[in-house]
Amino acid sequence: xxxxxxxxxxxxxxxxxxxxxxxxxxxxxxxxxxxxxxxxxxxxxxxxxxxxxxxxxxxxxxxxxxxxxxxxxxxxxxxxxxxxxxxxxxxxxxxxxxxxxxxxxxxxxxxxxxxxxxxxxxxxxxxxxxxxxxxxxxxxxxxxxxxxxxxxxxxxxxxxxxxxxxxxxxxxxxxxxxxxxxxxxxxxxxxxxxxxxxxxxxxxxxxxxxxxxxxxxxxxxxxxxxxxxxxxxxxxxxxxxxxxxxxxxxxxxxxxxxxxxxxxxxxxxxxxxxxxxxxxxxxxxxxxxxxxxxxxxxxxxxxxxxxxxxxxxxxxxxxxxxxxxxxxxxxxxxx
Length: 335
Known about the structure:
The protein has helices at about 1-20, 25-35, 40-50, 50-65, 85-90, 100-115, 130-135, 155-160, 180-185, 200-210, 225-230, 250-270, 280-305, 310-320, and strands at about 75, 95-100, 120-125, 140-145, 165-175, 235, 325-335. With about 325 residues, the chain is α/β, with parallel strands linked by helices. It has a domain at about 175-215 and about 245-325.
């Protein structure tokens, strides 16, 4: 018994060192996740929560390439477990983090306390114009895995743009609902083709399939829709349309093509899934079938090109549309 207890403590210390987290935060996350032990998504959910500080450090290192970090003000929208705020604070920023979930803010508070970081946390909704304006202007605004959960995307984007000072940097990390792997199995709940559906059909599908307790995603827009809305707000890509283009677009596109058969097979299974109503079966299967046709047409457009430069550009465009699972958009506000 004593040996097992000592080993458990040692393992927990090693875990905290690996994730760069403290005891209060680690214990709070484990306690909260305990009821989900055995769920297919448990390891992913736990790793995501515990890895918040590691991800935050990567974000700050990445954005430091675009303008100096030390001495700036930073705002993390949907700060969740607080890792990005902590990383900005430790890099010399006046760091602010906001979220709408009191439970997540409580986790962030424990994480901030463990790290002894100078971070201001507040409960503010990104769609609340008055609340966002009260925060002031920032040199850096970050928003990761949030926009797909927001009911009013135009308002959210307008308030993110409004929070930037001229020349400020906005980073948006947005799951791509039309990425082939996420169509096969979405990143939130591992559900087939739900990323292709509008909000109401997705809610019906989720409830009938009993995939989990709550479906908290509102919509997945296309890349050009996000970029066009932001451009109208005076916020444009600091470099290319996305900051995480695949190193080998050809390989990325071939990987997409390789998934299409499995998506078709899954659509066939959905058509006879006894858990689902006839309308839901038809809606999901038809969405997946239409998606496969869309991707095959995009792949054919690459092969149809005769000019090598145009063919390479189209290959990269198709990779952005269907291969990148989470777009990393780094944008700058007009001066």
